[in-house]
Automatic annotation (TrEMBL), chain A:
InterPro entries: CcoP_N (IPR032858), CcoP_N_sf (IPR038414), Cyt_c-like_dom (IPR009056), Cyt_c-like_dom_sf (IPR036909), Cyt_C_IC (IPR008168), Cyt_c_oxidase_cbb3_su3 (IPR004678), Cytochrome_c_Oxidase_Subunit (IPR050597). GO terms for cellular component: plasma membrane. Heme c 2 binds at residues 172, 221, 224-225. Keywords: Cell inner membrane, Cell membrane, Electron transport, Heme, Hydrogen ion transport, Ion transport, Iron, Membrane, Metal-binding, Oxidoreductase, Repeat, Respiratory chain, Transmembrane, Transmembrane helix, Transport. This is Cbb3-type cytochrome c oxidase subunit. SUPFAM superfamilies: Cytochrome c. Binds 2 heme C groups per subunit. It comes from Pseudorhizobium pelagicum. GO terms for biological process: proton transmembrane transport. It is found in: Cell inner membrane. Belongs to the CcoP / FixP family. Pfam families: Cytochrom_C, Cytochrome_CBB3, FixP_N.
Automatic annotation (TrEMBL), chain C:
Keywords: Heme, Iron, Membrane, Metal-binding, Transmembrane, Transmembrane helix. Residues 53-229 form the Cytochrome c domain. InterPro entries: Cyt_c-like_dom, Cyt_c-like_dom_sf, Cyt_c_oxidase_monohaem-su/FixO. It holds the Pfam family FixO. The chain crosses the membrane at residues 12-36. It comes from Pseudorhizobium pelagicum. This is Peptidase S41. It comes from the Bacteria.
Length: 293, 521, 250
């Protein structure tokens, strides 16, 4: 079998072996491959000298540059914080009104705020901040805890029913489940509340039920929502006479809310976001409401 | 297992094993009543297990690729899981990867290795029973793996998801495979071992090492499927990616290079371009690859020094990788007219090209600054599929179209037109897929790190997700084309085995000149 | 000369086998073994706490559903990662993770510090149908989690296996695993006190899915998601990142 022959096409000798018809040429390794090999090894060698690389028992070579990924990212972070500083310091130190008056700062707020909102708030309130079922619309002018950037910033800082020490607390009791009201009463007060924002639902046929509902309301709900049902921002009780609803204003949802209560939850952002980021977000959200015609 | 598992999902697997062994036992028992086979068969190559292996390869290909297309479609249209647990993305994704890597790729490797080792050693497989044990045992492992994922049984180790009992079973199968292979090699009548066998040996050996080290785990009890790995946190990260990267190296590269080294020169009827280059690339790949795994963990909590080792070795690895691709392409010198006319050879030619592209891309993505952009994005997915579709699947189809007519002793494939159709479907599918993923990956990576003029992040995560949808649809289409190609190929192979007349021309016998083993006439 | 030697090697199958094993072993040994011998690989964090049985069960559901296929739990040492997700992850934070879940793909956002970011109520809504709260999402819904009762009986075995592997669970924790899992998800029950006793006051005890009558897989998964990034505050120390150390009482 060991017969060397010359391949007619390449002019190269074979190695003299054959495996089921397959032969090999004895072509030397092309010079390009060797050069390429040397280049990549030189690159590796250089990197080994410069950077941490080789383990040595209980330690490793640190590299002559004396840097590592932790130092580098800390440096990058410091650099980027410094680059942002003119904006963030201004946001942190100036009053809300001053910032709103400054078109440049507001451009910053709209840019940075959009990303901050998207990565932190949009999960509940949506990318467009228009909310969803169970999560309030932030672009309207209906605010449970008061609108305006100061109030919004405070809500962001402490949250609502959050673990923060100063959290805003709002508890809508479970009137039905905890047997404070009977089923008929729940239904009556739901009809009554519905009629506040939809006067057309008040007809001669249900006048009696509405009257009963009004009495239940005054006895049970008015303490928080007020006798006129316009709500209270001190306890986050919504205005029930307008047509803005967090959970829904149809009869079925109203019955559910009154029966089972509501404990809306807004996380605290005190630790996760810096004071300037919280302020930026408050301004961003406030700005969404302003732009709305 | 069935008894011990009882309420645990392990019980279901126990029943599956019983059923599987029952069916196999029935087949074995029924063959006991057949006539005593002629002793002459011992002087022939043992090809029956290979035929079964080829069939299983194509079944797994269609299954795995179908699951892949489905998973891809779910990313674009998430309701396609119909709110069922077993069909949700997180469960079918490992079913796809296992189906194509281990089902399709593994069966192709086992089948072709049985073929190649016999031909290049001029020896019959060393044993009568163990080839069957390897093939059916291996497929039982795949079956346990995939059905396990649907039930939620997974270790979560990427490309090593099956739980401890399946892993143990694979060790048994794999050791049998190794012993069979090495015994057959020991019977060889050629003094030297051919390059393809170097690669098959590296594939079998190193996969065994990787599999055992990565899967050492403590089951919570022998009656439960769940286990906890012995490797904690950061060490587990290193072990997992040492395994993960070298599963690519020794399963998806070494094994398929072995295929390339046999079927490409065979089909082209040309000698290998350079024996010396083969030596350089083989040992380069075997040595360098094992260092490169940590490039999957750039910028993570894995110590920086390991990341740097991984990066530098990944760069050095490019030379032996390209040497292999170059060696394959230069082997085609003098056969370019065949590449033009013969879709089978073209499959292998394109595979070598994609091998070159994806190994370059791999080394490129291993460079830290590049990786900071590409990692966690679809670019990685695109890279994997450039390798998996362009290289692994194409070389397999090329090898199968060369192997199948020989195996069933036919003159040619049932339809050369269908091979041509398959080729263009596969190529179009691959290109659409990887271009979609390149685009989406680069866009995604850039959106995550784009800063505004005031040095604040410009986009939120959801912005980047919204930008992905068109590409997710495009990749589903690419995958679908590739799947259709595989179905066409399966049909063609089926018809070749069933509908073509036997060819009498080929004398495919081990050692006809040796009187001791020559067929008694 | 090399060529001559290689010719010889090619004639010996066993020789070739050993040569392959030798060449292929070096990389793994050099890269993996020192991770156990170099002390600074895993940072010191005396405040590091253990997963409660409920959180561990949740982690196993996270694994079962393949969440790691789309979500990483690894904030890299890159400025955009840190600015988006919080301080970069440290090795010590996954010290008790078997296996680790650093992930390889972000089809969805990183979750390394998602604990406490959103309410339990939001997580339940989001896991049940992500598009109810995030219309752009392509994440699958997991409505069955709230329907499936959590299998708490085996949790003792889980803790025991972890204990054998070196996670410092006490025998008392192993013995009370099932009870603690139920206690953590039922704030009003008699079992709740034992949880804070054994795992610390910072443990979140809550009716995660809003239903206290049974402990579901949803409870377990949400409890796990809420602990992500809150096992230790090591990552917040000595960094210029703007986030504050989380208050354990929050």
């Amino acid at each position: 079998m060991d017969v060397e022959e010359v391949d007619p096409i390449s002019g190269r000798k074979t190695t003299g072996h054959e495996w089921n018809g397959i032969k090999e040429l004895d072509t030397p390794v092309p010079r390009g491959v060797l050069i390429f090999l040397i280049v990549t090894h030189l690159f590796a060698l250089l990197w080994w000298v410069l950077m941490p690389t080789w383990p040595l028992g209980t330690t490793y070579t640190k590299g002559v540059l004396g840097t590592d990924q932790w130092q580098r990212v800390e440096k990058d972070m410091a650099h980027s914080q410094a680059a942002r500083a003119p904006w963030t310091t201004a946001i942190e130190t100036m009053s809300f009104d001053e910032i709103i008056a400054d078109e440049n700062l507001m451009a910053f707020v709209r840019g940075s705020g959009r990303q901050l909102f998207g990565d932190n708030c949009a999960a509940c309130h949506g990318m467009d901040a228009r909310g969803a079922a169970n999560y309030p619309d932030l672009t309207d002018d209906d605010w449970l805890w008061g609108g305006g950037p100061e109030n919004i910033a405070e809500t962001l800082r402490v949250g609502i029913n959050s673990p923060h020490g100063e959290t805003r607390v709002a508890q809508m009791p479970a009137f039905g489940r905890d047997q404070m009201l009977e089923r008929a009463q729940v239904r009556q007060v739901a009809l009554y509340v519905r009629s506040l924002s939809h006067p057309e639902t008040s007809t001669a046929d249900n006048a009696e039920a509405l009257q009963a509902g009004r009495e239940v309301f005054l006895a049970n709900c008015a303490a928080c929502h007020g006798e006129d049902a316009t709500g209270s921002r001190d306890v986050g009780a919504p205005n029930l006479t307008d047509d803005y609803w967090v959970y829904g204003g149809d009869i079925q949802t109203l019955v559910t809310s009154i029966h089972g209560g509501r404990q809306g939850h807004m996380p605290t952002w005190d630790e996760r976001l810096s004071p300037s980021e919280i302020k930026t977000l408050a301004l961003y959200v406030n700005d969404l409401g302003v732009e709305k015609p | 297992m069935a008894a011990a598992g009882r309420a645990d999902p392990l019980g279901v697997h126990g029943l599956l094993v019983l059923l599987y062994s029952g069916v196999l036992l029935a087949v074995v028992l029924s063959s006991l009543f057949e006539r005593e086979p002629h002793p002459e068969r011992l002087s022939r190559y043992y090809d029956d297990p290979i035929k079964v292996g080829v069939a299983l390869t194509m079944i797994w290909a269609v299954f795995g690729m179908f699951i892949g297309v489905w998973a891809a479609a779910q990313l674009a249209w998430p309701s396609l899981n119909f709110d069922t647990a077993w069909a949700s993305f997180g469960r079918i994704r490992p079913a796809h990867t296992t189906g194509v890597i281990f089902g399709f790729g593994g069966n192709a490797l086992i089948a072709t290795s049985f073929h190649v080792v016999q031909r290049t050693s001029r020896a019959r497989l060393a044993d009568q029973f163990s080839p069957w044990f390897v093939i059916f045992g291996y497929n039982l492992f795949c079956l346990l793996a995939v059905t396990g994922y649907f039930m939620g049984l997974t270790q979560s180790k990427e490309y090593a998801e099956p739980e401890w009992y399946a892993d143990l079973w694979l060790v048994v199968v794999w050791v049998t495979y190794f012993v069979l292979y090495i015994r057959t090699l020991a019977r060889r009548k050629e003094p030297h071992i051919y390059v393809a066998n170097w690669y098959y040996m590296a594939f079998i050996l190193v996969v065994a090492i990787l599999h055992i080290v990565n899967n050492i785990a403590l089951p919570i009890s022998l009656a439960h499927a769940k286990s906890y790995t012995v490797w904690p946190g950061v060490q587990d990260a290193m072990v997992q990616w040492w395994y993960g990267h070298n599963a690519v190296a020794f399963f998806l590269t070494a094994g398929f290079l072995a295929m390339l080294y046999y079927y490409l020169p065979k089909r082209a009827e040309r000698p290998i371009f350079s024996y010396r280059l083969s030596i350089l690339s083989f040992w380069g790949i075997t040595f360098f690859y094992m260092w490169a795994g940590s490039h999957h963990l750039h910028y993570t909590a894995l110590p920086h020094w390991v990341q740097n080792l991984g990066m530098t070795f990944s760069v050095m690895l490019l030379v032996p990788s390209w040497a292999s691709a170059g060696n394959a392409l230069l082997t085609l010198n003098g056969a370019w007219h065949k590449v033009r006319d013969d879709a089978t050879l073209r499959f292998m030619f394109v595979a070598a090209i994609f091998y070159g592209i994806s190994t370059f891309e791999g080394s490129f993505l291993a460079i830290r600054p590049v990786n900071s952009l590409s990692h966690y994005t679809d670019w990685t997915v695109g890279h994997v599929h450039a390798g998996a579709l362009g290289w692994v699947a194409m070389i397999t189809f090329g090898a199968l179209y060369t192997l199948v007519p020989t195996l069933w002793r036919r003159e040619r494939m049932y339809s050369n037109v269908l091979v041509e159709v398959h080729f263009w479907l596969a190529l179009a599918g691959t290109l659409i897929y990887i271009f979609a993923m390149w685009n989406s990956g680069v866009i995604q990576g850039l959106m995550w790190r784009t800063y505004t003029a005031q040095d604040t992040l410009a986009y939120s995560f959801v912005d980047s997700l919204v930008a992905m949808y068109p590409y997710y649809i495009a990749r589903t289409l690419g995958g679908l084309l590739f799947l259709i190609g595989a179905i066409v190929g399966s049909y063609n192979i089926w018809m070749t085995a069933r509908a073509l007349p036997l060819s009498r021309s080929e004398q495919d016998l081990p050692v006809v000149d040796d009187p001791a083993t020559a067929p008694a006439e | 000369m090399r060529e001559l030697f290689h010719r010889k090697l090619e004639r010996s199958a066993l020789g070739f086998v050993f040569a392959i094993i030798a060449a292929a072993s070096v990389g793994g040994i050099v890269e993996i073994a020192p991770l156990f011998t170099i002390d600074e690989t895993v940072e010191e964090a005396p405040d590091m706490r253990l997963y409660t049985p409920l959180e561990l069960a949740g982690r196993n559901i996270y694994i079962r559903e393949g969440c790691y296929a789309c979500h990483s739990q690894m904030i890299r040492t890159l400025r955009d990662d840190v600015e988006r997700y919080g301080p970069y992850s440290l090795a010590v934070e996954s010290k008790y993770d078997r296996p680790m879940l650093w992930g390889s793909k972000r089809t969805g956002p990183d979750l390394a510090r998602v604990g406490g970011k959103y309410s339990d109520f939001w997580h339940v809504a989001h896991l049940t149908n992500p598009r109810d709260v995030v219309p752009q999402s392509n994440m699958p819904g997991y409505p069955w989690l709230a329907r499936n009762a959590l299998d708490v009986d085996d949790l003792g075995l889980h803790l025991q296996a972890q204990q054998t592997l070196g996670v410092p669970y006490s025998d008392e924790m192993v013995a009370n695993a099932a009870r603690d899992a139920m206690g953590q998800a039922s704030p009003d029950s008699a079992f709740a006190d034992g949880v804070s006793e054994r795992y610390g006051d910072a443990t979140q005890i809550s009716s995660f899915d809003g239903v206290t009558t049974q402990v579901t897989e949803m409870d377990a998964l949400v409890s796990y998601l809420q602990i992500l990034g809150r096992l230790t505050d090591a990552a917040y120390r000595g960094t210029v990142a703007e986030e504050q150390v989380p208050n354990p009482n929050n």
